[in-house]
Amino acid sequence: MVSVALRRLLVWTLGLGLCLPIMHLELEAQSRSQNLSAAAINDLIAQLHASNWERRSEAFEKLRGDRRALSRPVVHTALVALLDRENQLTEETLRESHELEGVSVRFGEEFSQYKADLGETVDTFTDWTDPWQVCVSTHTSYDPHSKFAGTLALHGTFVVPCLLEMLNSDLGIIRGKASATLVRTISMSARDLDRVVIERAKAAIRSALEDKNPGVQMAVLEAIGHYGEPEFLPALRLFVELHPAPSPNTDAFHVRADALRAIQEIETRFQVKK
């Protein structure tokens, strides 16, 4: 059964790094501008590969405190690679703990603060036409209903392939985030996407409805309710029909309730006649 605590864990993990004020990054950068030399910048880039995350964090802080350094393409590439590494560490931590322990628990809130700052910094120079950079950003921690997820959804051409790949993850938290963001993305980027890509994405969304992890089912159903169009109604109604009302306070009960809620939200939003 997906307990309230587990639901909170899902939301907490997906939303890591989104609680910090955006102004924090700007004020810190202004107050700590360092005018690093080229040699110092190269040395800091090398330190980004340290095995200790605290050393990586210290090197990042020094780089982000220098506007000239942050304007260099080589630093951009190094920071995207660093974010990629921390994304992998985040997923490895979840995997090792069977999705019961996030990086904040294992490494402390300082790590989450560092990763959040890193993500915000990368977001200031992300090249949305570079598949690698887009996929790294797509793998970061965020709520599928956040402003950042909305930015991802506007770049569907490169985001959708990343989300489809994430749906193959062995982590339910990753599949839930990916499926929910995929619903939002095809809703916001439909005009820019090839019909074949859209149909593949919709097929993946329908498959997520039958995911073995109830948390994934809840995530995709909530997204469908918020962003889905009437064409999802047949699949939702079939889902409800094939899943008779189970006993209260069970995973199946909450999942079915979410499906009924999604149907109601779509019917209300599009004034669908019942």
How do the SSEs run, as a string of H and E? HHHHHHHHHHHHHHHH
Distinct helical segment count: 16
> Ranges with pLDDT <50 over ≥5 residues?
1-31
Q: What's the average pLDDT?
A: 90
Shape type = elongated
Number of strands: 0
Backbone structural class: mainly alpha
Helix percentage range: 55-70%
Distance between the termini: 32 Å
Beta-strand residue percentage? under 5%
Rg value = 20 Å
Q: Could you describe the largest sheet, including whether it forms a barrel?
A: none
Domains counted in the coordinates: how many?
Answer: 2
3D architecture notes:
- The longest helix has 24 residues, at 73-96.
- The chain folds into two domains: 1-13 and 142-274; 17-128, no CATH class.
- It is elongated and about 70 Å long.
- It has 274 residues and is mainly α.
- Mean pLDDT is 90; it is low at 1-31.
- The chain has helices at 4-14, 22-31, 38-47, 53-64, 67-70, 73-96, 103-107, 109-123, 131-138, 147-153, 156-166, 172-188, 195-208, 214-227, 233-242, 251-269.
